[in-house]
Amino acid sequence: MKSLLEQLPSIVAEGKKEAERVIERAESNYRLGLQTRELVIPSKDTDWKNLFSGIKDTPSDHASRLIYGDNLLAIAALLAGSEDNESLRGKIDLIYIDPPFDSKADYRTSVKLPSFDSETGNILISQKPTIIEQFAYTDTWRDGAFSYLRSMVPRLSLMRELLSPTGSIFTHIDWHVGHYVKILMDEIFGKQNLRNEIVWCYHGPGSPGMRQYNRKHDTIFWYSKSDEWIFQDQDIREKHSEKTLGNFKSGLEGSGFIADDYSLEEKGKIPEDWWVMAIAGRYPVDGRKRVGYDTEKPWPLIERIVKTASKPGSIVADFFGGSGVVAAVAEANNRKWVVSDIGKPACMIMRKRLIDLDAKPFLYQHIGDYQVEQMRSTMGSRFRIGDLAEIVLGLYGALPLPVEENPNKNMGRIQGSKTLVLADSPNKMTGLATLRRAIEIRDNLMGGWDKVVILGWNFSPTIGHDIEALGQGDRLEVLVIPPDLLDRLKKKGHKLKADEVRFSSLQYLKLGSIARDRQGDNEALSVSIANYVLLSPDALNLDEANREKLQNVINADPLALIEYWSVDPDYDGEVFRSVWQDYRGNTENDADAYRVVTTARLTGLPKKAGPRRVCVRVVDVFGFEAEATIEVA
User: Fold this and answer.
1) Considering its fold, how many domains does the chain have in total?
2) Mind spelling out the 3-state secondary structure of 39-86?
3) Range scoring the smallest mean pLDDT among 255-259, 277-281, 291-295, 507-511
4) How many CB atoms lie within 10 A of CB 198?
5) Binning pLDDT at 50, 70 and 90, where does residue 377 land?
6) In a domain, 459, yes or no
7) Is the pTM of this model over 0.85?
8) What confidence tens digit (pLDDT) does each residue in 428-481 have?
9) Beta bridge partners of 317
10) Does the entry feature the keyword Metal-binding, yes or no (predicted)?
11) Are residues 480 and 500 in the same domain?
12) Considering just the CA atoms, what is the radius of gyration of the chain in Å?
């Protein structure tokens, strides 16, 4: 078997070919796009005097972005651009990445929920990563360092395309694969463009019985794109010691120079390429400069990089977003930012952190047609939507209908019953039109059926209300296809069995009282949430003990599961503009860090003739989203 060193040429060659394919697609008619889920207008204050001033028509090109999804697809979409989003190719001045580099890392997260038993205190639920995240990490490390490096080459190659001519990339790594990554970066960026190998040193106790020196440093490789690069040294200079100043001045006077002619003391020195800074755990968790994320890096470390290698107004990017410290530092230092992460919990942490910072309005985006893209990567050029529908029906336990009645392969039946099953397409939103069509097919196809079950990937925001309004009772059921199904198919293929796949019920948000009243020259709006129904706990990646804890919370107070909710008082049906938010940990609206308030009060709204279309969005502690819309006269 070849050594890793012997395999590096093929790793680089294949990775560059993959990057070229992505670029070709970005320049073709078929482009991968970004869907804007939310325009977040941070507001912890309910009194907005100039609520929509300069906000209503904020162009996508001028806003920072938080992107949920695989970073390879996110980078591809940023390169491609669209009608609504200008391509960022050659426009990013600084990329900092801190990719996971420990194959044995435990990426589970802990969720704290309020207890309804005064003796037990708060409940701690240990949540394993979503299956999507697990597969991302296990795919990265499936063949050890080989597969890790293979995944990094196309990403690094595409990041180079995003960099401006004077742009730089800082790659944060440790001893596991650090020197191999340097070889890759020499090949992609040119070894002549290595500006520094920065050693970040920190302190901490060692393990008992150690038989080696304590490993207490990481490495950051700084490469520029070209032989010209941004280097802002004025903000990062350090004072010289009195001893150094004395020695320097003494040396000048022996040589006949006048020390006052030099600005040594005023300017200070440029720091060396070894940095001693405490790890993030030494800084207090305040929700702004530190949020307590496991792999979070300290604010001063990131701030030095941002101040050095970008300018005010520059775009700064991080494609392994994690805690969001890069976005937060960029925001605090008047830079625009683009961050992405494949983890829903990470995206929630970043969104809350930026709201805490009173950030300028930013976009929360998803990768368009995510499932289709994943399926293309799994099945290649053979991919057909109908093939996927057929697989989904089989995993649900449905037998396909005869081909003459079922040319798209998307309908099946449950053996021994009069139940019809319809698998919707992953590049469609399952909404009212789908429901009506399914009912029509149920009532007319092959003599009619007692019931129709719709299996969907993506759902319109009003799906819960649409189901209720149609009044079909038990004759219509809508279930969620597991969002990780494509990753599992990629991993297991035909070995995946029906009893390993759970199709869950929709989460559902129910609004309470809504009040709209005049307030001088403006309007005020009160919006309450009455109930939240979580997806079946069986669909979550929890063990039995944690699932039981969760069920107890659901039974006692389902609203305790809400992590974040926001209101758009004038929803246009396309872009949700979040102008009021509350979230767990925000104690400015109430003193309970583990619950959100259940009523939003928006004041200072501009007067509007006719009804207001109010939309409410909720995200629960597991990252599931629900939405409700209502017109208020």
Assistant:
1) 3
2) EECCCCCCECCCCCCCCCCCCHHHCEEEEECCHHHHHHHHHHCCCCCC
3) 255-259
4) 21
5) low
6) yes
7) no
8) 778 888 999 999 999 999 999 999 999 988 777 678 778 888 999 999 999 988
9) 95, 338
10) no
11) yes
12) 27
d(CA 303, CA 319): 17
Specify the 3-state DSSP secondary structure of 117. Answer: coil
Name, in order, each residue with C-beta under 8 angstroms of 132's C-beta and a sequence gap of 6 or more: 342, 483, 484, 487
pLDDT at 57: 47
Residue identified by tokens 């009619």 is 448
Q: What percent of the chain has pLDDT over 90?
A: 43
337 three-class SS: strand
What is the CATH classification number for the domain harbouring 433?
3.40.1350
What DSSP string runs through 119-160? TT-SEEEEEPPPHHHHHHHHHHTTTTHHHHHHHHHHHHHHHH
Structural domain containing residue 229: 4-43+62-103+141-205+212-236+271-369
Pair 87, 189 in one domain:
yes
Where is 13: in which H helix or E strand?
helix 4-26
CATH code, 146: 3.40.50.150
Per-residue pLDDT, 266 = 64
Residue at 129 is within a domain: no
Is 482 in the same domain as 524? no
What is the C-alpha to C-alpha distance for residues 200 and 174, in angstroms, rounded to an integer?
10
How far lies 628's CA from each of 81, 137, 365, 466, 471, in Å? 30, 34, 19, 10, 18
State the chain's mean pLDDT as an integer.
Answer: 84
Residue 596 sits in a domain whose CATH number is: 2.60.40
Q: Is the pLDDT of residue 342 over 90?
A: no
On whether the CB atoms of residues 319 and 326 are closer than 8 A, the answer is no
Q: Measured at the alpha carbon of residue 246, what is the angle toward residues 241 and 247, in degrees to the nearest 5?
A: 100
Tokens of 276: 């001693």
β-strands 362-367, 522-533 pairing: unpaired
Number of neighbours of residue 190 by Cβ within 10 angstroms: 15
The verdict on 622 and 561 lying in the same domain is yes
Looking at the fold, whether 186 and 302 belong to one and the same domain comes out as yes
Do 165 and 226 contact (CB within 8 A), yes or no? Answer: yes
Indicate the residue among 369, 396, 419 that finishes a domain.
Answer: 369
Residue corresponding to tokens 């796949």 = 501
Picking from 339-353, 366-380, 467-481, which range would have the lowest pLDDT averaged per residue?
366-380
* Residue 166 belongs to a domain: yes
Does 195 lie in the same domain as 324? yes
What lies within 8 Å, CB to CB, of 111 at 6+ separation is 124, 125, 127, 621, 622
**Mind giving me the DSSP string for 540-551?**
SS--HHHHHHHH
Reference 180, options 213, 209, 142, 221; nearest CA is 221
Does some domain include residue 376?
no
Single-letter residue type at 74: A
Do 155 and 39 sit in the same domain of this protein? yes
Q: Domain boundary residue among 504, 539, 571?
A: 504
Q: Quick one: which H or E segment has residue 396? A: helix 385-396
CB neighbours of 282 closer than 8 A, spacing ≥ 6? 298
Please say whether the beta carbons of 614 and 35 come within 8 A.
Answer: no
Residues 14 and 91 in one domain: yes
Q: For residue 457, give every residue at least 6 positions away whose Cβ sits within 8 Å of its Cβ, in sequence order, or none.
A: 371, 424, 425, 426, 428, 430, 481, 483
